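Minutes, project huddle
Topic: does the predicted pose make sense with pyridoxal-5'-phosphate bound?
PN asked that the exact inputs be recorded in the minutes so nobody has to dig through chat later. Recorded below.
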Amino acid sequence: MSFEYISGSLHWDNTDLSGLTENIAQLLKEKYAYTGAYYLYNTDIFLQRASLFEKYFPDDYFYYSVKSLSNIHFLSHLSHKEQFGTDVVSSGEMVRAARAGFQGERIVFAGVGKTAAEIQLGIDMQIHSFHVESLAEIRLIGQISSDIQKNARISLRINPDVHVDTHKHITTGKEENKFGLALKEIPAALDLIKSFSHVSLVGIQSHIGSQILDHQPYLNTLGKLTPIAKEIEKTGFPLEYISLGGGFGIDYKQNPYSKKIPEEFSLETLSNGLHAFRPLPWKLYFEPGRFISAPSGVLITNVTYKKDKNGFSIAITDAGMGDLMRPALYGAVHPIFPVREKHQISKVDIAGPICESTDYFSRQTESPELSEGDRLAILHAGAYGATMGSIYNTRPLIPEVAFDHTGTISVIRRPQTLDELLTLEMQ
Ligand SMILES: Cc1ncc(COP(=O)(O)O)c(C=O)c1O
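Predicted holo structure (tokens), as shared on screen:
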């Protein structure tokens, strides 16, 4: 997973992006009369990243976080890996996972606001487990499962109150966050579960945040969850698993000129640290998303206009915050580079076309000098990119294209047409 300029052309691992994006531009134009921005994924990288979990945790299981990159192309590749299941957060994702080849038993369902209809669907699909986040949710699952006389497997999402060094918008495991059950709610949760005939408690889970680079918070979390699991078992609930959630961070700073080894989460260090806990009497699960998907995708966009200001310029791109929301939503920084190398450096803001003052991809940074018509790659955009896409400003969803080492280029989501977008409103 590296970017470098070779003979003036941006290469992603060994793939020449200026040649590849030229071919894709032609293909999209001929097939869909489309000339705008698109997500470009490297399927090999996605699968290599998934394999790292198999390598470092050969006895454990991985429930891939579908919301990070949910295209069926990737889910169906993952469905062939035995240690992988999916972690979903809506009935839409549940159906998506099923269509990609995941049977219910390989799906766990997270989220603070599962509706009655979603719970019913999960029970009907016999999913592996609902990761429950409140006493009220246990009550609703309990009622629905007794009404339809079908079993519901649940796990408690426990808020371990561990400190994690990451962006405040993506911490989840602190007492003040909306996610999970507080430690003091566990006894009430167990009593409630006992009162329902068709609910079985099968595990406990914690997800402490995202973009975490240090392995220690995971060990701290397991250190907290292990005695809790033992206490729960003493009250008559044998557990099958502990899930440590996702959150494994990547190096968003990596760019064609950085010569450093990526400073990302080390699965190897976590794997070594976990030896102190093994053998565990329960299965161990992880729910990786970004670590697998972020490095697998870039957003390809074109400079439509350039505005010269006093001492800097603004390049306006054809992609906007509706296509990649992370910079506007969290202040996330993605390296942005032209597919054809530019040597002159200047101060350039890169902004989208959307009518919002936060529609910027980068601000006041040193960047290669850009000109109208330049094609840019916004790096490490595979996670929480396409999946957060919006049609704000009545801009249809942009296409997703994947390639692999065989040279195959697949349009894995065609561009949405304006007619498709408007049809819901046309009676
Ligand atoms: C419960 C749960 N599991 C897994 C993930 C995946 O996180 P990441 O993509 O950072 O690995 C999330 C993301 O927010 C989550 O909420």
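Observations noted during the meeting:
- The longest helix spans residues 216-234.
- The mean pLDDT is 95.
No decisions taken; revisit at the next huddle.
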